[in-house]
Amino acid sequence: MTLLHNRVSQKELKERLIAKKEARLTLSFYKYFPIRDPKNFRDRLYGSLHNIGVYGRIYVAKEGINGQVSVPSSRIVEFKARLFALGPFGDIIMNEALNEDGNSFWVLKIKVRDRIVADGIKDPGFDMSRKGKYLDAAEFNRLTDDPETIVVDMRNHYEYEVGHFVNALEVPSDTFREQLPMVVEMMKEKKEKNIIMYCTGGIRCEKASAYLMHHGFRHVYHLHGGVLRYARTVRESGLPNKFRGKNFVFDNRLGERVSDEVIASCHQCGKPADTHTNCKNDACHLLFIQCQECSVRYDGCCSPECQQVAKLPEKERKELRKGKKNGMMVFHKSRHRTKASAGPGPKVAGFGT
User: Fold this and answer.
1) What is the pLDDT of residues 153-163, one digit of tens each?
2) How many domains, the chain?
3) Per DSSP, what are the bridge partners of residue 222?
């Protein structure tokens, strides 16, 4: 019988990964294509990738696949062969990590979802096949040299905060599903302008470009492979780099440096910093920016209150967490805190409630 899910604790898996010291490569990939039976596709994919030591997070839906994985360097060719054997992946968007430490993931999770990126689109007439034009790094640079071109960042506020393209427009929201109607409203007087969408790896901006086309925009482009491919291309080819700061990534690393500039600030003391971390109090787990000095001062926590909780014995901390479910909690400079599920959290040091 093929194993279709992990049965070992994440703590043990992480310890195993660190002990192995095996060279690994982090890859991100996506493709929009019809999958008739996502559950069956998911099970076959899990069995195939688990057997060669692939870790990561993959979403499968009727509209396609979206994944971020860590693969043993010695098995990259085999990984691609196994993936490509399951679908029409010849032209799949696949990006390699810029800064690799081998510890991006330590467990394989493959989930069936309604969409590979949550978009909130209800219109049955929406068609992903009618999307904007791809731009490579050189074309992006050339088109953005025109001051009339509008560059739109289709990532969340905390991603934009630590890094973005020069003169890029932020769509200030917490989720992609919120951004789509917002960007249509923000751009409603700009339908004849050249509009370039971008995101981390390309999946969100590709759908956003189709959404704008669906709403009557004509000159829509999106960055092929997102910031990940752009950063690698300019690094290897010597093209001017128009991205400032760090690119947030959704794995254990929480960021890759694209330029030497630090454009964000510590959420606790205000000093220049762009290192995201999760509060060490597991009952909070707030995602926020913390400088090294504040990390030492607050023991990796977001507030003195969480610092005290984190020092309690594990048994007491478990009791405090019992019955509580945290959604993704993210520090937001304009609102101090946002949370995917209901319920208040502790104060962030230096900011209050």
Assistant:
1) 999 999 999 99
2) 3
3) 134, 197
- Of the residues 112, 145, 174, the one at which a domain ends: 112
Catalytic residue among 199, 284, 291, 301: 199
Catalytic annotation on 266? Answer: no
**Residues forming a β-bridge with 246:** 257
Residues 141 and 227 in one domain: yes
Does 176 map to a domain? yes
**Confidence band, pLDDT 50/70/90 cuts, at residue 3:** low
pTM of the model: 0.83
68 close to 252: Cβ distance less than 8 angstroms: no
Helical segments of the chain, H only: 10-20, 38-50, 76-84, 137-144, 157-162, 176-186, 203-214, 226-237, 292-297, 304-310, 314-321
Question: Residue 71's domain is classified under what CATH number?
Answer: 3.30.70.100
Decide: residue 256, CB within 10 A, 0-12 exposed, 13-18 middle, 19+ buried.
buried
Cβ neighbours for 290, distance < 8 A, ≥ 6 positions apart = 266, 267, 268, 273, 275, 277, 298, 300, 302
